[in-house]
Design brief:
mainly beta; 3 helices; single chain; Hepatocyte Growth Factor; seven-stranded antiparallel sheet
Length: 203
C-alpha cells in the first residue's frame, strides 16, 4: 500500500488515497491534500464482476479513458465535479467510464462479463452544500458542487436540482416516467422532460 501511494503521488501531485474496508462494503476516499477538505470525495465500491447500467446512457455518460487501476479511475471521477459514478473494466480491461446520475433511480448494477470490473458511487453530504443560496463573487468557494449564477448566488450545477429535505443537490431525472415533485426542478429540461400533474417526468 505504501509503495502504491508513493507511485500514485508521482503520477498525480498532491493526491492521497486512503482505503477503508468495513464488512463487505469498501469505502474509498480520494483527497487532494494541497486543497481544502471540499475537494475530498468518498466513494462506496461494489463487489467485483459487475458494471453500471445507466437509465439513459447518452444523457449520463461523461467520458471514457484508460487507466491502470480502479483507484486511478476513482481519481478521475473525483477530478470531475459532475461525476457521480465510475465503472472500471466492465467493457474492456483498464477502461474507466464516468457517469452522471446515481445508482437506483438513474441506473443499476448488473453482472459483467469481466471478473475484475468494479463500480464506485460518489457519496455526497449536506456539508458540501451549506453555501447553497448564498451570495458569491465569481465562484462558490466552499464547495465544487455548486456554481455561481448570473445573480451572484450559489446554485446547483447543471443536471442537478435542490432538495431542501436532504440539503443537497441531487441528480435530475433522465427518463420519461421517472417520479418527480412539481415544486422542484427534478426533470432534465435539456431532454425536454417536465414534471406532469401525475408527478412523473414526461416529454
Amino acid at each position: 500500500m505504501v509503495s502504491f501511494l508513493r507511485n500514485l503521488k508521482m503520477l498525480f501531485d498532491y493526491h492521497q488515497i486512503i482505503i477503508f474496508w468495513y464488512s463487505y462494503l469498501t469505502i474509498f476516499i480520494v483527497n487532494f491534500t494541497h486543497s481544502q477538505y471540499i475537494y475530498q470525495s468518498l466513494s462506496v465500491l461494489s463487489s467485483q464482476g459487475v458494471q453500471f447500467l445507466p437509465a439513459n446512457i447518452p444523457a449520463q455518460f461523461i467520458s471514457a479513458i484508460f487507466v491502470d487501476s480502479w483507484r486511478l479511475c476513482a481519481v478521475q471521477c473525483n477530478m470531475n465535479p459532475s461525476c457521480r459514478i465510475f465503472d472500471y473494466g466492465a467493457l474492456q480491461p483498464n477502461q474507466c467510464l464516468l457517469f452522471e446520475g446515481d445508482i437506483g433511480i438513474l441506473g443499476s448494477i448488473i453482472p459483467s462479463t469481466l471478473s475484475d470490473s468494479i463500480v464506485g458511487a460518489v457519496q455526497l453530504t449536506p456539508s458540501l452544500f451549506t453555501q447553497y443560496g448564498q451570495s458569491c463573487s465569481s465562484v462558490c468557494t466552499d464547495t465544487r458542487y455548486l456554481i455561481c449564477n448570473d445573480n451572484s448566488i450559489c446554485e446547483c450545477m447543471p443536471h442537478t436540482y435542490w432538495d431542501a429535505s436532504v440539503g443537497m443537490c441531487l441528480a435530475q431525472m433522465t427518463i420519461s416516467g421517472a417520479p418527480c415533485d412539481p415544486t422542484m426542478n427534478m426533470c432534465r429540461e435539456d431532454l425536454n422532460l417536465e414534471c406532469s400533474a401525475l408527478n412523473l417526468c414526461t416529454g
